Every structure is written in C-alpha cells, then in structure tokens.
Amino acid sequence: MTNYLEVKNLSKSFDSFQLHNISFTLPKGYIMGLIGPNGSGKTTTIKLILNMLKRNGGEIKIMGLDNIADEQKAKSELGVVFDTNYFSDDWQVTQVEKSISVFYPNWKSERFAEMLRKFHIAPTKKVKELSKGMQMKLMLACAFSYDAKLLILDEPTSGLDPVSRDELLQILSEYIEDGEHSVLFSTHITGDLERAADYITYISYGELFFSGSKDEFVDMFRIVKGGTEELTPDLREKAVGVRTFPTGFEALVKTEDTGAFSSLSIEPATIDEIVVFTSKKGDDYE
C-alpha cells in the first residue's frame, strides 16, 4: 500500500466556520505536519479523520479503508495522541494497559513493558503523577504496543519544555525509520516541522493553501528586503504580504516573481515567515 491516509474534498460546515474541499495524501513511511493559524481547521480535520464529527462531504481512507464504513478495522491501525491526557487520572500505568489492551488483538505486553523502560515510566505511577511529556509518552507506548501503522497527533508538543519536545520529535523520527509507519501531526510550532516533517499540509481559514513536500513549500517563496523608498507599487502588487519598519520593509514574494527585484536583498523564507505573511492575507503589518 502506497498511501496510509487519503483525504479527498473534505468539507464541514459550522455556524461561523466552513472547512472547504480539503484534499491531501500521506504516503507510507513519512511524517506530515498539519499547520495553519488558530481556528483554521486543523483539529476539525483530525476529528473528521477519526469520525468524531460528521462531515458534510468528501472521502477519507485510512490504510485503504473507508473511515466510516470500515471504522473499527481502520482504527485498529491507528494510534491517536491528543494534547491532553485521555486516561483516568487515578489509573496506575498497569491499569492503563489492562483497560486499553482489550481493544487491540495485536497488543503485545512485552512491547508495552519495553516502551515503559525506554521512556522511563514506572508501572506503578498514577497517570496524574506523570508530567505532560510523560503522559504523551504513555499514549505513544500504548500505540507502539499494538504496532499502530499510522499515528495521528493533535498539537503533541504544545506546552512541552524544549527537552521533552526534542525527545518526542526524535521518537516520531525513529518510528518511521523502517518505512512501514507514518505520522500526521498538527502543530503551530514551525520549528517542529523544520526538524521532523517530510510533508506539509497548510490549511488557512478553512481552505487548503498547500499540500506537498516541505522542500517544495519553502521553495515557493522568498523574503525580499529593502529601504522604504524601494517598496514600489509593483512590489506591493507582487507581494503575498508586507511588513514595514521605520527604515524599510520585508515582503513575502513568490519565487517566480523575484526576478524583477534582483537589485534588492532576496533571502530564503522560513516556514514560520510563510505562515505569518500568508495568514495576514496580504495586509501590511508592523
């Protein structure tokens, strides 16, 4: 199987928000970052993939299985990690295994014990006694214990300290090394994408802005810089977004349009810069 996740023309309407015709594909053996401004539809997309919300249109396949018609079988291939713990706070870690393992025929207790040792999680600890980072690792330990082929994580690094973030990203990178596993994770921390993602899907205000390789994404744009007098009407027209200073400006411009501004300073754009400029919808900001 080439693709572990296929989303086609996914739509969902709320009173004040609409997710409109979102399509993307996550190949086997890769990590995809799902990004966008707050309220853009990232969590809605994940909930629709997990069939936690009823969609208005579109199609979702997990490991080639329809996420509604074949929900139980599809979810047996999934590991899900949210930014908040979904276990009972008073459970000991051993109780987590007893409660979760019954839902997964492929559960391997020896694998769970191995993951606890690797993540330095004491089996007798209660969930509420674990830090947020350790709770995240416990959720991952569960997913690894039934060999989930596809991990879906919603803002997994939010609220983690830098060391825990680094550890989590390393765990995800190791998880896909064998080429048999994939990861979809939403994040607003663009440094996570620079470090771990192979692909990026960018949703902006309910619309698909981009889905493809990380390298393609950053190659689409450049940052053009200059003095105040060099911010010409032509440059403003070509710019996706402009940031002005008392002494000058910087603008996000499509790479294909930078030829006309070769006399100015032109630099590669970071993922963070692309997201910030495009989310401003072309307006100047200081």
From TrEMBL:
Record-annotated ABC transporter domain positions: 5-230
UniProt keyword annotation of ATP-binding present: yes
Pfam families: ABC_tran (PF00005)
InterPro entries named in the record: AAA+_ATPase, ABC_transporter-like_ATP-bd, ABC_transporter-like_CS, ABC_Transporter_VariousFunc, P-loop_NTPase
Keywords recorded for this protein, A-Z: ATP-binding, Nucleotide-binding, Transport
GO molecular function: ATP binding; ATP hydrolysis activity
Keyword hit for ATP-binding: yes
SUPFAM superfamilies documented for this protein: P-loop containing nucleoside triphosphate hydrolases
Taxonomic superkingdom: Bacteria
Name the record gives this protein: ABC transporter ATP-binding protein
Annotated organism of origin: Schaedlerella arabinosiphila
